[in-house]
Specification:
The protein is an alpha/beta fold. About 35% of the residues lie in helices and about 25% in strands. Strands 4-1-9-10-11 form a five-stranded parallel β-sheet, sandwiched between helices. A four-stranded mixed β-sheet has the order 3-2-7-8. About 45% of the residues are buried. The mean pLDDT is about 95.
């Protein structure tokens, strides 16, 4: 196999998105799609022409087959995916309560992905990647998934690979104390850390973003890229003063689900193209903006020509 630009690992599930607003008990129609933080990210990169690998454990069931087919269909290498005959593929439901807001209800306990373990990690496969991308969701799924994540970090560090880590805080999976104990050490081992503003404040136990950034820097985390929603992003890299990178206005937003994952794809695309960090963050903001244009996390993501036309002002996002 030829070299891979990025390899990632994490749970993918089947989403059922309500086709109307209100509590789920009142909804009878749902749209189905595949979704998981890491595969959202990989799909965003693959659509831009980069070679990506994604793996996980999937249930040996119809939903697992759908996840596999969908991700493979985006041109992503899925050769290391394991089908588990003794566990099921996770599912979740998206509830729309008011315009632009949603709740997610996950049914993932004892899912196939939670059973991933260090023996499922192929060092020779991981070594092919220029960048290893991981999120904080996987290590809090289970003890074995945490160990698998740590092994990925170990392999990447030993081989001098770039590690991009999105903490992707999920307090429905664990309490904040547990999250801090698992995620902060991984942040300290990463080449770049891409938290959202609110999750960084929670992890650092700070009310203000500036204080949270100072606390992170005191921990030796020197390449921090904070996603700040429609405001864009804040670069806090090296000893330089934190820099705001403006976001893009979106005329008719549909859903923000997955926007952070798409930001990660744009940012990593910039790294792979050896762009300055300011431009990497701008690319991240652009893919985050595209994400807002459809239900589902990756459905509206662009190809390389569409992205470049948008970045140069030749076109606007107005779907």
């Amino acid at each position: 196999m030829s070299a891979i630009d990025v390899i990632t690992m994490g749970e993918s599930m089947i989403a059922f998105e309500a086709q109307g607003c209100g509590p789920l008990r009142e909804i009878n129609s749902f749209q189905k799609w595949v979704g998981g933080a890491e595969d959202n990210f990989a799909i965003g990169l693959a659509r831009l022409g980069f070679k990506c690998g994604w793996f996980s454990r999937l249930g040996d069931d119809e939903f697992g087959k759908e996840v596999f087919r969908t991700i493979k269909g985006e041109g992503i290498d899925v050769s290391r995916v394991i089908f588990d005959p003794d566990a099921q593929t996770g599912v979740f439901f998206v509830e729309k309560r008011v315009y632009g807001e949603f709740n997610c209800y996950f049914y993932r306990q004892s899912s196939a992905a939670s059973r991933i373990s260090p023996v499922d990690i192929d060092p020779d496969y991981i070594k092919q990647a220029k960048i290893v991308y991981l999120t904080g969701i996987t290590p809090i799924l289970s003890e074995s998934a945490c160990q698998a994540t740590e092994k990925m970090f170990q392999i990447a560090i030993e081989n001098g690979q770039t590690i991009v880590f999105d903490p992707n805080l999920r307090l429905r999976l664990c309490d904040i104390t547990t999250a801090r104990s698992i995620l902060i050490p991984l942040m300290q081992k990463s080449s770049y850390v891409l938290p959202g503003e609110n999750e960084l404040k929670l992890l650092m136990d700070c009310q203000e973003l500036s204080a949270a950034i100072d606390k992170v820097r005191a921990m030796g985390i020197n390449n921090l890229v904070v996603k700040t929603g429609d405001k864009g992003a804040v670069l806090a890299c090296g000893d330089d003063k934190a820099m705001n990178i403006a976001g893009f206005a979106v005329r008719n937003p549909v859903s923000s689900m997955g926007a952070g994952d798409c930001f990660g794809a744009g940012f990593v695309a910039g790294l792979l193209e050896k762009q300055p960090l300011e431009q990497c963050a701008r690319w991240g903001n652009a893919l985050g903006a595209f994400c807002l244009m459809a239900s589902g996390p990756y459905q509206a993501l662009p190809g390389p020509q569409e992205l470049q036309a948008f970045l140069t002002g030749e076109s606007s996002i107005s779907r």
